[in-house]
């Protein structure tokens, strides 16, 4: 079974699924990286696989973004995809051990695409 990507809202879904819209709203390079990342997510068995790909720099966020994780869309671009991993019941994880979260996550919510530096 591979990761199922759900979407926070229709805006995020459009950005992640409609290349033309992503290109217009972000830029060609960010759109390409975003769409490639969604493909990688959907073909991975779990977040552990994604974590092994250092290019995405998967990491948990803190403070008011607790429970959210960021995936870089290219270091120098400054953009990232924010995801929320869900447990097998479809709830946000209460688990604090990141290795368990990464190995057991099968569903993520693509929460937003942000420019980290804006």
Radius of gyration: 13 Å
Strand content: 15-25%
**How far is the N terminus from the C terminus?**
36 Å
Q: What does the main sheet amount to?
A: 5 strands, mixed
Series of secondary-structure elements, N-terminal to C-terminal: EHHHHEEEHE
By DSSP, the count of extended strands is: 5
Q: Would you identify the regions where 5 or more consecutive residues have pLDDT less than 50?
A: none
Secondary structure tally, helices? 5
Helix fraction bin = 25-40%
With strands numbered from the N-terminus, the spatial order across the biggest sheet is 1-5-4-3-2
General shape: globular
Question: Which structural category do the helix and sheet elements fall into?
Answer: alpha+beta
């Amino acid at each position: 079974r591979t990761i199922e990507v759900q979407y926070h809202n229709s805006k995020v879904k459009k950005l992640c699924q409609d290349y033309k819209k992503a290109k217009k709203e972000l830029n060609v390079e960010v759109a390409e990286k975003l769409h490639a990342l969604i493909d990688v997510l959907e073909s991975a068995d779990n977040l552990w696989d994604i974590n092994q790909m250092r290019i995405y720099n998967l990491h948990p966020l803190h403070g008011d973004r607790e429970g959210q994780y960021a995936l870089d869309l290219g270091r120098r671009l400054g953009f990232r995809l924010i995801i929320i991993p869900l447990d097998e019941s479809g709830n946000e994880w209460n688990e604090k051990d990141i290795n368990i979260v990464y190995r057991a996550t099968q569903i993520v919510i693509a929460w937003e695409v942000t420019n980290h530096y804006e």
